[in-house]
Amino acid sequence: MNRKSEIERNLDEVKEKISAVADHEVVLIAVTKSFPASDVEILSQLGIKDFGENRDAEGVEKSQVVAGTWHFQGQIQSNKLKSITSWASVIHSLDDLRHFQLIEKYAPHSLSIFLQVSLDGAHHRGGAGIKDLYSLATAIENSSKHSLLGIMAVPPLSVPTLSAYEQLQQIHMDFKKEFPGAPALSAGMSGDYEMAISHGATHVRIGSSILGSRSPQR
């Protein structure tokens, strides 16, 4: 089986599983971290328009080769933001007001932004607490340039996955009441995207289920 056929088979399977569980529109983001630009080109040929990267260097390289909506979903480093905002259209992992201030300073175009919320209070792994989440959301809503899409979370290993998604679903429902213009929820990866969708995820970030096991950049 050639590479395009392999990716197409996997992609069709993922789409079928999403359709089986979703009762709302779901954006499928193909995560291309550690895979070559040739795989991204295949995904584009198969109709995928949304691509996710965790690393700035890979995002820079691949976004120059393949047109689409590029999503940055890795942990943000201040010294990378000028570069990240040059190629990404969507940021999934904002959790610090100082980083948003840098986005306001550097971004050459409008960005759509998800705020990462922590589900276990371990903020060193990424994610804001509820109090900081709401103040950060207010700051973005007051921006004349950038738009708030909603919230993002990664279930922590220390919490059972179902419990984490039940917690996230409640956080999401409360957040939408306060910020009705930002109803999206970015959650779910290859191992749990069906559960994420059943708990309200509108954007899923899927890599290995489509592209296979992670491999070194080649």
From TrEMBL:
The keyword Transmembrane helix does not apply. Residues 6-213 form the Alanine racemase N-terminal domain. This is Unannotated protein. Keywords: Pyridoxal phosphate. The keyword Flavoprotein does not apply. GO terms for molecular function: pyridoxal phosphate binding. HAMAP family: PLP_homeostasis. Pfam families: Ala_racemase_N.
